[in-house]
Amino acid sequence: MNLSDYLTFEVVSMAVLVLVILGDVLFIFARPHIPSNRESSLWVVFYASLAVIFGLTLWQLFPDTNRASEFFAGWLTEYSLSLDNLFVFLILMARFNVPRKIQQEVLMVGIVMALVLRGIFIAVGAALIEHFSFIFYLFGAFLLYTAWHQAFRSEEDDEESESKLIVWLRKRIAVSKDFDGVKLRTVEGGKRMFTPILVVFIALAATDVMFAFDSIPAIFGITTDAFIVFTANVFALMGLRQLYFLLGSLVDKLYYLKYGISFILAFIGVKLFLHAMHVNELPFINDGKHIDWAPEIPTEVSLLVIVASIVVAAVASIIRSRRLGE
User: Are the C-beta atoms of residues 78 and 215 closer than 8 Å to each other?
Assistant: First the structure.
């Protein structure tokens, strides 16, 4: 297929994804409830199946390109990073005592905000990459730093960061003591004021920005196709709400997950550095010439490394939990 066919596929795919997301939003707000494990499992399988079908469609329609393998590698990377988001979501829900019945709506709003913010980040990142090849050096360095931070941070660090944000917000916004469903404003003591849900939304948005700084450079290390980058993020985030209810407190039992994610980020950081050497234009590095001896890591190798890292981290966590009787 030629470029026009790919553009048509992009438009059709985006239209379908928008419809799926709108349908999900309408379903949640029309029927607020606490999902059962069975319901959550079915939704997670449904969205994962959609991602697999999308990837296989790419492979079928564009067999002479790496788009399918790039999508799967990007999707798995974003999915593994989104698992880390769940821990922060759990902290936020606990900190604000968000009623479990409205947590679906709150998470849905947070996910939609994440999609919008990541769309902006992707557009900016794609423009930077197109005009400034040295950005790969910066992305690579940032991912290596993030990998180190991911491996050696503690849960207390996350909780302290969230607490500081919450205290800062409450000092600047008049907030009622109790929630009023998903309403942003309510009346308390004869005075109109914001409900705690506004602060929750702001905290979620701040969290979304924080994780976008990690995830967007990571996936640009796998592909520079902005469409693949965005769709991988969409499919990773779409099942996040159901995964929250399915895994819940089990997330913190995946003890070695952070090390698996850290390894993935470090690997992609190195991959970005090697690619930056190939497209090097910085005058103080090799006189501004491309460094052709630096090896390029194929997308298929990246996909294998990502899958292996997730599997090893998950299996090691399960073995540890069983040994400790958790």
Answer: yes
In the Cβ-directed half-sphere of 110, how many Cα atoms lie within 13 Å? 35
Whole-number Å distance between alpha carbons of 287 and 318: 50
CA distance 88 to 81: 12
> Region 257-284: what's the mean pLDDT?
83
The DSSP symbol for 192 reads E
Mean pLDDT of the chain: 81
Cα 278 to Cα 288: distance, rounded to the nearest angstrom: 11
Cα(81)–Cα(215) distance, integer angstroms: 7
- Which of the given ranges, 23-37, 87-101, 126-140, 169-183, has the highest pLDDT on average? 126-140
Cα–Cα distance, 194 to 175 (Å, whole number): 5
- pLDDT tens readout for residues 271-312: 888 888 877 777 777 777 777 777 778 878 888 888 898 889
CB 143 within 8 A of CB 218: yes
* Backbone phi, psi, residue 34, to 5°: -95, 115
pLDDT in the model for residue 223: 87
CA 305 – CA 289 distance, rounded (Å): 30
Do the Cβ atoms of 257 and 82 come closer than 8 Å? no
Token pair in block for residue 291: 């460094």
**Structure confidence by residue, pLDDT tens digits, 204-232:** 777 777 777 777 888 888 888 889 999 99
- Our CA angle for 224, 260, 302, nearest 5°, is 35
Query: What gap in Å lies between CA 221 and CA 271, rounded to an integer?
Result: 7
Q: What's the Cα-to-Cα distance from 265 to each of 47, 148, 199, 221, rounded to whole Å?
A: 24, 9, 31, 9
> What's the confidence (pLDDT) of residue 65?
82
Half-sphere exposure of 136 (CA within 13 A, CB side): 23
pTM of the predicted model as reported, rounded to 2 decimal places: 0.79
